[in-house]
Design a protein that fits this description.
Oligomer: single chain
CATH superfamily: Spore Coat Polysaccharide Biosynthesis Protein SpsA, Chain A
CATH class: Alpha Beta
Bound molecules: cytidine-5'-monophosphate
Helix content: 25-40%
Distance between the termini: 23 Å
C-alpha cells in the first residue's frame, strides 16, 4: 500500500449472475452459458481475480445454482474467499444481496455484470482509480454511434439528445461503499447502480470503457464474444 493510498481498505466486487438470460434462448441462466467451453461467469471471475486490490468478492447466482460443485459450475474458478449468494427477481435486488455479503471493511465497491465477460482488467483499474481519486460513483462508457431518440408511449419522438452528450455505459461500476449502500437503501428498480447514486444527488463520473465490455444478451452477442476470444490481437483479458 502506497502513502497516497494509505486509507485504502480494499476493493469489494459484486458479480451479478442471477439473470434468466431469456433473450439468449440457451435454456439455462445466461451467466452459465458456455463461451469457448466455459461459462460466461468463469471468464468474468478470471478477470476479477486479476484485478489489483480486490479483497472481497460476492457472486450472485440463481437460487437453484448456489452449489459451486454443481455441474453448471464446471470450469468456474471462484476467487479465494469469494462467497456465493442467491439473487433476486430484479437486478437491483441481486446487487443488494451481493453488497450485503461483501467484507464491510472494503471502502470501494465494484458492481459487475457477469454477462460482460470479456471486460479487460484495465477497465476495472480505471474505475477503481477514479473512485480512489474522489468520485462518489464511476462508470465506464463509450460514445454512441447511433442517433438516439426519446419517444412517448405511442412511439412518437419527443426529443433528440445531441449525440456528443451521450455515452453507452458498461460495468464494472464503482462507488464508495457507503454511497452505494445509501443508494440501495433509498431506491430500487433502476437498470444500473449509477442511476440510484445519481438519484441521491451524487456526481457520477464516466471513464473510458471498452468495446470488449459489451454485454452478452443475444445469440449474436455470444458469437461475437467467441470471435473476440479467438482473435489473436484482441482476445484475452489485457
Ligand atoms: O438482464 P441483464 O442483461 O440486464 O442483466 C445484467 C446482469 O445482471 C447479468 O449478468 C445478469 O445475470 C444479472 N442479473 C441478476 N439478477 C437479475 C437480473 C439480472 O443478477 N434478477
Amino acid at each position: 500500500m502506497t502513502d497516497a493510498h494509505a486509507a485504502a481498505r480494499g476493493v469489494g466486487v459484486v458479480v451479478v449472475a442471477a439473470g434468466s438470460g431469456a433473450r439468449l434462448r440457451a435454456g439455462l441462466p445466461k451467466a452459465f452459458v458456455a463461451l469457448a467451453g466455459r461459462p460466461l461467469l468463469a471468464h468474468s471471475l478470471d478477470t476479477v481475480a486479476a484485478v489489483p486490490g480486490v479483497a472481497s468478492v460476492a457472486v450472485v447466482v440463481p437460487a437453484d445454482l448456489l452449489d459451486p460443485s454443481g455441474p453448471a459450475w464446471s470450469g468456474v474458478s471462484l476467487p479465494p474467499g469469494a462467497v456465493v449468494v442467491a439473487g433476486g427477481a430484479e437486478r437491483t435486488a441481486s446487487v443488494a444481496a451481493g453488497l450485503a455479503s461483501l467484507d464491510p471493511s472494503c471502502d470501494v465497491v465494484l458492481v459487475h455484470d457477469a454477462a460482460r465477460c470479456l471486460t479487460p482488467v484495465a477497465v476495472f483499474a480505471r474505475v477503481v482509480a477514479a473512485v480512489r481519486a474522489g468520485a462518489a460513483g464511476v462508470v465506464p462508457g463509450i460514445p454512441v454511434v447511433d442517433t438516439i431518440k426519446v419517444v412517448d408511449a405511442a412511439g412518437v419522438v419527443t426529443s433528440t439528445p445531441p449525440r456528443e452528450s451521450l455515452r453507452a455505459v458498461q460495468t464494472p461500476q464503482g462507488f464508495r461503499r457507503e454511497v452505494l449502500l445509501a443508494a440501495h437503501a433509498a431506491g430500487a428498480g433502476a437498470t444500473d447502480d449509477a442511476a440510484l447514486v445519481e438519484a441521491l444527488g451524487h456526481d457520477v463520473l464516466v471513464v473510458e470503457g471498452d468495446v470488449r465490455a459489451h454485454k452478452v444478451t443475444t445469440p449474436d452477442d455470444l458469437a461475437q464474444a467467441e470471435r473476440l476470444l479467438a482473435a489473436p490481437t484482441t482476445g484475452g483479458r489485457p
